[in-house]
């Protein structure tokens, strides 16, 4: 069967922020900036006001040390459409809570064998290599539903000794230092599965800004976002004023930035551009929104994976679980908009919370495959 090439979007359907009609790359070519390439919105972000927000590594044991399982056994993702999301959420809550107890007990040992310790994390890359781009729509479909990274797992436990930041008192330089160090931890956690599945990982820079910022992806207002055109991450120091839960939670800001790095993982594995291309190809607004929600909830799941990987060294306690989960809920489309039945581009609170918990509950990256999940889980 002949594979369908990238083609121009249906007339009258192209969102303005995706660039002029006909600006798609040719077969296999890298678009010269995603805001011009027609395949992705200007930014993949987290907060309000955003229109576009190797081998599996097995944990080792020290002498007499039990296997490290910070959030309990891998949850079985909801597959039966007749089961309710509520029941799934209740089940995942129990997995996360029980798992944290295990993590804290194991954390009392001095014999923890942290994973990927010999890896030298590179400095922030201001000139990263081009992102991988599928040649055809069939390849794009495979990239989102059967990506090789889904066969990997994130190493656990990984050392990340970055103290939590006080968003009420931190200066911009302090925020930048904190988030740059966090990016180093994210790279250390994600390097084995990304490069083990044949892709290249990149450590992004972090830019702290106020009301708005000009980037290669265009202008962004108060937000936290990943820009595909320069492969860097941006964080507005005003975001906690718009999403108070980010400020109130000890780990809220780190959940946000781990989510943005999740978009970087999607970009480096061709998931991000493929989902945007397929959504645009459909010519249907509802389909484009669904692809966007699947991307965003997957980034939530990826952020949960990182917390799973580093919970021991970060010192995440049982009492922190509720705040972490509330952060996922607080940035749901329905919560931010105040409209319970809104159909948005990021996902409702229940969906974002569900996928955050999936990531928290297991190191298996394949559990975060939102592109094969029932629509009820990505509303």
How do you describe this structure in short?
Helices cover about 40% and strands about 5% of the residues. It is mostly helical and about 375 residues long.
Fold and architecture overview:
Residues 1-76 are annotated as: Disordered. It comes from Microlunatus panaciterrae. Keywords: Hydrolase, Membrane, Metalloprotease, Protease, Transmembrane, Transmembrane helix. It is found in: Membrane. It is a single-pass membrane protein. The structure is a single chain. With 379 residues, this protein is mostly helical. The chain has one domain. It contains twelve helices and six strands. It has helices spanning 34-37, 85-106, 137-145, 172-196, 239-242, 244-248, 252-268, 271-282, 285-314, 321-330, 333-337, 349-360; strands at residues 44-45, 206-209, 213-215, 218-220, 224-227, 232-236. The strands form two sheets. It has a four-stranded mixed β-sheet, with helices on one face. The chain is globular. The two termini are 33 Å apart.
Explain the layout of strands and helices.
Blueprint: H1 34-37, E1 44-45, H2 85-106, H3 137-145, H4 172-196, E2 206-209, E3 213-215, E4 218-220, E5 224-227, E6 232-236, H5 239-242, H6 244-248, H7 252-268, H8 271-282, H9 285-314, H10 321-330, H11 333-337, H12 349-360
Parallel strand pairs: 2-6
Antiparallel strand pairs: 1-5, 3-4, 5-6
Helix pairs in contact: 2-12, 3-8, 4-7, 7-9, 8-9, 9-12, 10-12
Number of domains: 1
Give the tally of β-strands: 6
Order of helices and strands: HEHHHEEEEEHHHHHHHH
Supply the number of helical segments: 12
- Oligomeric state of shown chains: single chain
Main sheet strand line-up: 1-5-6-2
What is the overall shape?
Answer: globular
Indicate the low-confidence ranges by residue numbers. Answer: 1-42, 46-109
Helicity, in percent? 40-55%
Give the termini separation: 33 Å
Q: Please outline the major beta sheet.
A: 4 strands, mixed
Beta percentage is: 5-15%
Mean pLDDT across every amino acid position? 78
- CA-atom Rg in angstroms: 19 Å
Structural class: mainly alpha
Subcellular location: Membrane
Transmembrane segments: 85-106
Main location: membrane
Region (Disordered): 1-76
